[in-house]
Structures are given as structure tokens and as C-alpha cells.
Structure prediction request, 365 residues.
Amino acid sequence: MALKVAIVGLPNVGKSTLFNALTQTAAAQAANYPFCTIEPNTGDVAVPEPRLNALAAIIPSKEIIPARMNFVDIAGLVRGASKGEGLGNQFLANIRDCDAVAFVARCFIDDDITHVEGKIDPLADLETIETELMLADLESLEKRVANLEKRAKTGDKESAQTLRLVQLALVELNAGRPARKAEISAEDDKAWRMLQLLTSKPALYVSNVDEASAATGNDLSNQVAERAKRDGADHVVISAQIESEIAMLDEAERTEFLETLGLSEPGLNKLIREAYHLLGLQTYFTVGPKEARAWTIHKGDTAPQAAGVIHTDFEKGFIRAETIAYEDYVSLKGEAGAREAGKFRQEGKEYVVKDGDVLNFRFNV
Prediction:
């Protein structure tokens, strides 16, 4: 499940530095001038999962394969992007292809790094970005209304549904609110997503702070946290500069460096976990002598749906899922111990997979 999270912000807020740290490469050029990112850079990153190592040690497994998530470094937006200012139109289109948006706000002061607006005000930055996304959505939807109305009048049910959802989105956008504030029923969810609205995507606010503020945040990041709370969004405090430095260290050096800063783990781990949570995702595991592997599914997925993530044939021919809870698998030292203790279960098609389940699928094609 290759889900994409767009890293979005004004120029010079630390997006590319953060992206470089995420991918542990220098694929995105980080430079002190606007539009240093011209094409969207996509990085495939491992989802931190300590449970996977514990499972692999029990077998032991020869290979450990974590779940993956894609982050996309979007070039800096500027005021007027929705009208084509800067490189706006091109990059607004790139955001549409993503499943969620991480808004990076500059919460550090550094006279050597210019700010496109000439001042450090993270709330104003976020307002500029969201306004441009809302304006782009407004323009996109307003162009579709007339045609949808004509088709809906002919009795086209799909057009009628789409028109109703467009009107719901326009109510929010015209009131100065992102489209994600609209209340959408489960029956309308697929059609809603088909609108590909920039402001309907789940939002994560990322406060990029200086090194001294990485552990506790600062006044600027506190402002962003308050905004996130009001918006019902998730919020992460991170120092992109620190993350770019520790990305090049080995595990022992990284642990020592983090301890000197009062940090228990890299900020990137928090960012990836929050993105996972934002998208309503969870993890299940498969474990064997060849490999221990983490698989990504949506919360609420059934056993056949989870099997389909491995291969569509697994879902089509699903018979049952041999299931052990993670805690039982570890405490009882594997499948044999779980069987002996009565913690090995046979689950059918209606079983809703729980986070951390260790699964083995039986299927027939």
C-alpha cells in the first residue's frame, strides 16, 4: 500500500531539508533561494516498527522487511499560486496525487535564511498556503457546476451525487473553510475522494524548530499547536536540521546524539507515526524463517482485505486466517507456545484485523 504524503510549505521553511532526512539522501537540493525544488521528489521510507525486530528474533528470520510510506517534496508555494504565481499550478497538481498533506511551518529564526514574506510568522504562512489551496479548489469546482447540473437534470444519478458533493464543498470553501470540514457519509466517501480536492485531504502540521527547541518546542510552535487543535489536525514538532544530521549517523552515534539533546527518538519517527495515524492505517505481521514483514492496512479491514495486500489471489481464495496477537506471540515465544497456551486462533472472513496481529493465510485459488 504505497500511500503518499505531500510535504508542503512556503519557500525556505525547511521542506527539502526534512525530505532529505526522511529519505536519508540528498535527492532534494536544499538551498537558500525560492523554488530550489523544481520537480517533486518522492522518497520511499520505512515505517519505524520495533515490534518487527522482536518478532524476527524469535524465529529467527533471515530478513526483516518494514512497511513503507511515500513522502513527496513539493516545491515552495507563494501567494498567488492558485493563479499561477511562482510555479504554483504545476505543484498544486502534484499535491492532488497525494493522500495527505504535511504543512511545514517555519518556527525558527535565522537571519542567514531568507523568508519569502520577509517575516517569521508561522500562522500567516499556514494561512497563505491554505488560502491558495482553497482558491484552487474553488476554481476547479465552479468550472464543473454547470455541466453537472445539465447532466443531473437528465436523471444521471452519478452526476446528481457529484453535484451534491460539489455544493457541499463550495459551502465550506466560500465560508473560508477547507473542504475537509464538510460532513461526508460513508456512502459518499468514494465519490468525495474522486473530486480530488486539495483541501479535503487529511492535514498534519509540522513545526520546524531550531535545535534548542527540538525537545520542548517554542513560542512559535506553540502557536501552530493551538491552530492544529482548533482545526482538529495532528501536530508534530521537529528540527529538520537535527534530523538531517542524525540521518547520516550509525545507530549508536544517533542514540548518543539524541540523548545529549534530551530526545528519546528521532523526530522523523514521530512524523511517520502521525502520518500513519492521520491516514487511518495500522500494521499486521507475517513471520517465518525467510522473512519477518510488516504490512499496512486500513483500520477496520477484514482478514480477506488484509490478505489481498499480499496478493489479490489471497483475497479471492481466502479460507481462513491463522491469528496470534503480537503480545501473545512474543510472550509465548512464537507459534508453538501460542498454540499450547490456546492463543492460536482460526479466524474467518468477517474477522476485523487488529493492529499487531501475526497472521498466516490459508487460501485456495
Confidence is low (pLDDT under 50) at residues 25-38.
